[in-house]
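Let's practice the habit of predicting before peeking. Look at the sequence and jot down your guess about where helices and strands might fall. Then scroll down.
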Amino acid sequence: MRRRAAGLGMALTIAVLMAACGSGSGGPLAATAGKLGDVHSGILDLRLTAAAGEQSTGEEAGFRLEGPFAQGAKGHLPVADITYTQLEGRREQVVKVVATGDHAYVVRNGRSYVLPDAQANQLKVSGGSGIDLHLDRWFDNPKLTDAGTLDGVAVQRVDGPVKVADALDDLFQLSRKFGATDVRTPRIKGDLAKRLASSTESATAQVVTGKQDHFLRHLVLDVKLRSQAPPQIREALGRLSAVRFHFDFGLSQPNRPVHVRAPSNPLPASELPST
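Done guessing? Here is the structure:
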């Protein structure tokens, strides 16, 4: 449990930083990538799964993060209530991390514990790291359409085929940052990128972003590989080694106030289970 809590600390740090860099090109995708660094609070719902067969039921491995967050000042704890679910087939392990700005807690099986300082400090903003989603590098001939309203604002949708190496390179790095320690995350460049592209049956993505504020509201990526991906990819992915990948990212109520209450009657860190 102590190792799990430490991993969650890393995950939540990434969630509340929300920093990103784009390639510098124009258009709504570049604007959206660049605006990730301007998101200081919101409600996060992120899911990354991989599956080996045609049917997803009972075969998925991955994780999900969901809940409200607000970035703290540099060197201070955030305000957040993030539920982390590790997915392993039909099995799920659920842990919640709560941070009030002053203290941090982990909640599991209905019991809450005060995080020790060493783990709570992992939630503090240190600057310099965050989410890299180079959305403007992903697409081949993206299609831009009006998408009505979402989360109370006018939005537009960008969808189409994606360059699988660029997309998966971003997401593998992201999964590592979110605590998927069995993913070695090689950089998918050069010859490896070419071999991955030749091993891809299909790769599509859809981005929903604000027309005016350019805040990312929703992102879905689906990749299907042929039965034999390059060996470096299979080796790097560990338990996520599969032929189908699904990434779903939702962000609502960006930069709105977030209020989180401390759990009632938390137990001391010394009583944290060891597993």
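How did you do? The CA atoms of residues 43 and 68 lie 4 Å apart.
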